[in-house]
Design goal:
The protein has 487 residues and is mainly alpha-helical. 52% of the residues lie in helices and 6% in strands. The protein contains 20 helices and seven strands. The chain has helices at 19-45, 54-65, 79-82, 88-95, 101-113, 116-126, 130-141, 144-150, 157-172, 176-187, 194-207, 210-236, 251-260, 262-269, 274-283, 300-308, 325-338, 343-364, 384-392, 459-465, and strands at residues 71-72, 77-78, 400-402, 416-418, 446-450, 469-475, 478-483. Helix 5 (101-113) packs parallel to helix 9 and helix 10 (176-187) runs parallel beside helix 12. The longest helix is centred in the first third of the chain and has 27 residues, at 19-45.
Length: 487
């Protein structure tokens, strides 16, 4: 076997390519990073980020970086019991130097832009055209799945986007050390990361190194078992709250339905917009990957998980679940184009993929030419300065319950709750305390709420506890309440 690649071409690095030819791709990455950092911070400063999930991870990172137990009071669960996102531990030391939610949003944008590098390197090498390689970078960066996820708060899946793209690059280029490192990092992102890594291991076993591929598959399955059956139950005291997403009563019920009532399963799989979701995924690259689908098939188990889930959010592209599929589909497109024997066919397929990317981005993305607009309407612009003032009035580690758009701005404390929790538990803990007043309710020192509360914000709860609090500041439609001293 040639030590460079299956095609006998010496290994390529970013530096070894003529720098002037790289400028197009570099400019596209810079434009993406600049635009989406701008949009992310615009949403944040406009109070457009609700607490799930930016504040969850921001409070969690603050707790970890200050050596506190990572029990995130925003959701009522241990950070690593909710999801085994141990990759965050690698970020925690750096978070101490920039302990702000904005840092997570900026980091996410760089992570999502990162796969442009392996996409460009592989396309430049195997398709042998800088123009095509640059066009495929544009195809990736225009992907609405990527752009929607970029503006959907912060999620550790952003790490997976970079890690899996580098893992695929390493597998194709026979860089075993890089491959193993990226596989390990990928598995640290989430308890279901094996759904991406196992198909990659199968490809490595079939196309590159049998024993390395088998080791990746076995190791990934074992880690998934440990994460789901040992770590999460140990940290939560129960199985994952997300296990209920498997329909028909769980795995056994799903298999039983498949065997005894396949028509019922089929009806389920074509409901709730699932076929449209699949069409959206493929249309972002013009379905070009179907001409040689083996790299794109690395995402097949993730797609299966999303389609089978009874959580309707999972099969909608605005959410984080689909983000890791974006680089897989584009790398699959690179592979399919590289398999074409003639340059004219490669050029035509690249044009098809790029046009599809522009079209899908215009409909569902957040580029300047997209029909979508960034929503920042939770808080009127006239109230922003007032809220900034009220937030500064909160003592550093006071126990607070706040209106949900405000939580990500004040979550650097051991106890912060999303109103009406903890007075009336909502979307909290293992979801078995809904509607209950939690024991920690008597510890809440401050409330930061709109005046008046809308009917959707549980004004009745405030009425029940109002005698125990007094308004100490009131500005631009918001009030800061302080618990009265005990007589």
């Amino acid at each position: 076997m040639n030590s460079g690649s299956a095609l006998g071409v010496p290994k390529t690095t970013w530096r070894s390519v003529n720098q002037r030819k790289n400028l197009g791709a570099l400019l596209l990455v810079a434009l993406y990073v600049g635009w989406f950092i701008h949009l992310s911070l615009k949403v944040y400063y406009g109070y457009g980020e609700p607490p799930f999930d930016l504040a969850i991870f921001d409070q969690g990172m603050w707790l970890v970086s200050h050596f506190h137990e990572p029990f995130v009071t925003i959701m009522g669960r241990n950070l690593f019991g909710d999801h085994t996102s141990f990759v965050l531990l690698l970020v925690a030391p750096f978070y101490r130097f920039l302990p702000e939610p904005q840092g997570l949003l900026v980091l996410q944008t760089f992570l999502l832009a990162g796969p442009a590098v392996p996409i460009y390197l592989l396309a430049r090498k195997y398709i042998k055209s800088t123009l095509i390689a640059t066009s495929l970078v544009a195809t990736y960066l225009l992907n609405p799945v990527l752009e929607q996820g970029n503006l959907n708060q912060f999620h550790p899946e952003a790490f997976q986007v970079l890690f899996i793209s580098l893992a695929i690059y390493a597998a194709i280029e026979r860089r075993s050390v890089l491959l193993v490192v990226m596989v390990i990092l990928s598995l640290m992102v989430k308890e279901d990361a094996a759904l991406l890594v196992v198909p990659l291991g199968v490809w490595v076993a079939a196309r590159r190194n049998r024993w390395l591929g088998i080791t990746i598959v076995v190791g990934s399955v074992l880690w998934a078992m440990v994460a789901n059956w040992l770590i999460i139950p140990w940290l939560l005291g129960s199985s994952s709250i997300y296990s209920s997403r498997i329909p028909f009563g769980g795995v056994s019920g799903l298999l039983g339905t498949l065997l005894r009532r396949p028509g019922q399963l089929w009806s389920y799989l074509v409901s709730q917009g699932r076929p449209f979701y699949l069409w959206q995924l493929g249309s972002t690259v013009g379905f070009v990957f179907l001409l040689a689908p083996e790299i794109a098939l690395i995402g097949v188990l993730v797609v299966a998980e999303i389609i089978i889930s009874n959580d309707s959010y999972m099969h909608q592209i605005p959410f984080q679940y689909s983000m890791p599929l974006a680089p897989v589909l584009v790398l699959g497109t690179v592979y399919a184009i590289a398999k074409q024997p003639h340059i004219w066919r490669r050029s035509v397929l690249t044009v098809v993929a790029l046009i599809a990317a522009v079209w899908s981005c215009s409909l569902w993305g957040f580029a300047p030419f997209s029909v979508n607009e960034v929503y920042t309407g939770w808080v009127p612009s006239r109230s922003i300065d007032a809220l900034t003032y009220l937030e500064k009035e909160l003592p550093p580690n006071a126990v607070v319950s706040a209106w949900y758009p405000l939580v990500s701005h004040i979550d650097h404390r051991k106890q912060i709750y999303v109103w009406p929790t903890p007075f009336y538990a909502s979307n909290w803990g293992l979801l078995n305390d809904t509607g209950a007043m939690l024991p920690v309710a008597n510890q809440v020192q401050y409330l930061l709420l709109p005046i008046p509360l809308s009917p959707a914000d549980n004004p009745a709860v405030l009425s029940q506890i109002a005698s125990g609090y007094r308004i100490v500041q009131r500005r631009a439609g918001f009030g800061l309440y302080e618990r009265k001293a005990s007589p």
